[in-house]
Fold this protein.
Amino acid sequence: MSNKQLITTVGVGLAAASAGLLARKTLQKSWEQVTNTPAPKDKAREDTDLKEAVTWAVVSGIGAGIARTAVQYALDKRKSK
């Protein structure tokens, strides 16, 4: 693997990871505005019920996954031109 390919691969990975983190933070703020409670990040918190924790896990996981996939797709498509 050449240096250029390595840099491109690392760059795409970092962009995808950043998109996932940004999506998760955005979802966290949206959750807090909609529910008027903080997003259940800490499973040991006593006021978080199972339904809320599972809902948050599904929503944040799907959102972050979609963001990462979209960035990777866009960068791969741009790279192939």
User: Anything to note?
Assistant: The CA atoms of residues 22 and 35 lie 20 Å apart. The chain is about 80% helix and 0% strand. The chain has a mean pLDDT of 85. The first helix runs from residue 3 to 35.
